[in-house]
Design goal:
The longest helix has 14 residues. It is globular, with a radius of gyration of 16 Å. A hairpin with a 7-residue loop joins strand 5 and strand 6. 12% of the residues are buried. The strands form 3 sheets. Strands 4-7-1-8 form a 4-stranded antiparallel sheet, covered by helices on one side. A two-stranded antiparallel ribbon has the order 2-3. The chain is α+β, with helices and mostly antiparallel strands and 120 residues long.
């Protein structure tokens, strides 16, 4: 559980087609965060965007578009954050990882930690 006070927000920007070890990268990152006991994480799929290659990816009604942007965000602090980053950074070959200062002002208490990832 995060406590009130300073922390870091990590945002990972990748394409939905990014893979690591044969699996979608966003899923590998989400599992990594779960396994490291991060309090929570969010994966969001965008409808349009472009990366360093300046190739525009969009979701259009009449056109199927691949590799839409995906954002993964989580908040952590201290040694737990460094332990996650040590594994995360080598996984993200094509993408952007950003670290921002944040202030945790409220955090819900976490119930007993689940023993499995469920459907992940």
């Amino acid at each position: 559980m995060l406590i009130e006070g300073p922390a870091k927000k990590v945002t990972v920007y990748i394409g939905e087609d990014a893979r690591h070890g044969g699996e979608p990268l966003y899923l590998k990152v989400l599992n990594l965060l779960f396994d490291h006991g991060v309090a929570g994480a969010t994966v969001v799929k965008g409808i349009a965007g472009f990366g360093a290659d300046h190739h525009l990816h969009t979701a259009r009604l009449l056109e199927l578009s691949g590799n839409l942007p995906v954002t993964i965000e989580f908040v952590e602090r201290g040694p737990a954050l460094q332990a996650v980053l040590d594994v995360l950074l080598p996984m993200v070959h094509e993408g952007l990882v950003v670290l921002s200062d944040v202030e945790v002002i409220r955090s819900a208490p976490r119930p007993e930690r689940p023993t499995s990832r469920g459907a992940v």
